[in-house]
Amino acid sequence: MHPSIQVRALLAAAALLAAGPACASSTATTTLSAFQIWVKDLDLSDGVAPALTLDPQARSQVVPDIRSIFSDTAWPQQGETAFGAVSSGGQVGGSSASASFAGDPFVDGATIAANAQGGSPLDVASAAAYVLTDSGQDVLILGAHTGVAFGGDVTIAWNADNPAASAFGEVDLAFSTGPGSPVSVDILRYVTGGYYGGSSDGALSGSTSSPIIVWYENDSDSPLALAYEVFVYANASDLEMVPPPVDEPGSGLMLLAGASLLWSLRRFRRDRSA
């Protein structure tokens, strides 16, 4: 898990101290397109075809949600297979979130997308799309003398309504040590982009595009269990910082409440790795 999102989300939490009315909407769209899974035969002379098997319990997951101090509304859905087609979304007031899987990464490529719009001063909209098994760890079996690669094209577009708002996205691809593995694996590639709230130096609006790929080669004579991650995320809040005329006694408590709210945006990531 790339830890930077937690820190950046906390920056937006501080704006909950004194949120004023927003005149527009902050938005973030994150897309992993042309996502494909490739296998490669590392030993053409052994007469054994390369092999890759996904855990049959793995399911595509989409989790759009909208959180505020007062409520927590989510619309989670899962597909029928690891990369099965699925989509979900919803709206609370002027805030909305959606996420989807479409296509086949073993054939023509898949598109995995997350969209967030923070249209209310007290709402944080986020959307995540990822793969998960019942055990909490996504695992594939990589055949002997077989290489595997996950890759695609990332596009992140964002618009923060004002300097205190935030709008950002991230895509992670990773391989790591699987259960009972005789080798240690820790490979992570990620692409981020956006504006992260009051202390950010970047542009309020913009976009970034980049290819992303992660690969691993099993040179051994035996199959190998390999954990993997495919994660697409978008977050947007339309929080406008308005300095209060006086220092109210309850402001410290409000800051703690806001920090807890934004920190919880990533709690499902911790649950996955537990």
Blueprint of the fold:
Blueprint: H1 4-13, E1 19-20, E2 26-41, E3 52-54, E4 59-67, E5 72-74, E6 77-78, E7 86-92, E8 95-104, E9 109-118, E10 124-132, E11 139-142, E12 146-159, E13 166-177, E14 186-195, E15 205-218, E16 224-237, E17 240-241, H2 251-263, H3 267-273
Antiparallel strand pairs: 1-17, 2-9, 2-12, 3-11, 4-5, 4-6, 4-10, 7-8, 8-9, 10-16, 11-16, 12-15, 13-14, 13-16
Helix pairs in contact: 1-2
Radius of gyration based on Cα positions: 20 Å
Write down the secondary-structure element order.
HEEEEEEEEEEEEEEEEEHH
The fraction of residues assigned to DSSP E strands is over 45%
Residue-averaged pLDDT, rounded? 83
CA(first)-CA(last) distance: 12 Å
Q: What overall form do the CA principal axes indicate? A: elongated
Largest sheet: 9 strands, antiparallel
Give the fraction of residues assigned to helices.
10-25%
Subunit arrangement of the protein: single chain
Overall tally of domains: 1
The total beta strand count reads: 17
Low-confidence stretches: 1-23, 241-274
How would you characterize this protein structure?
The protein is elongated. It has one domain (4-273). Strand 8 and strand 9 (109-118) form a beta hairpin. Residues 1-23 and 241-274 have low confidence and may be disordered. It is built from 3 helices and 17 strands. 11% of the residues lie in helices and 51% in strands. The protein has helices at residues 4-13, 251-263, 267-273, and strands at residues 19-20, 26-41, 52-54, 59-67, 72-74, 77-78, 86-92, 95-104, 109-118, 124-132, 139-142, 146-159, 166-177, 186-195, 205-218, 224-237, 240-241. It is mainly β and 274 residues long. The longest helix is centred in the last third of the chain and has 13 residues, at 251-263. Helix 1 (4-13) runs antiparallel to helix 2. Strands 3, 4, 5, 6, 10, 11, 13, 14 and 16 form a 9-stranded antiparallel sheet that branches.
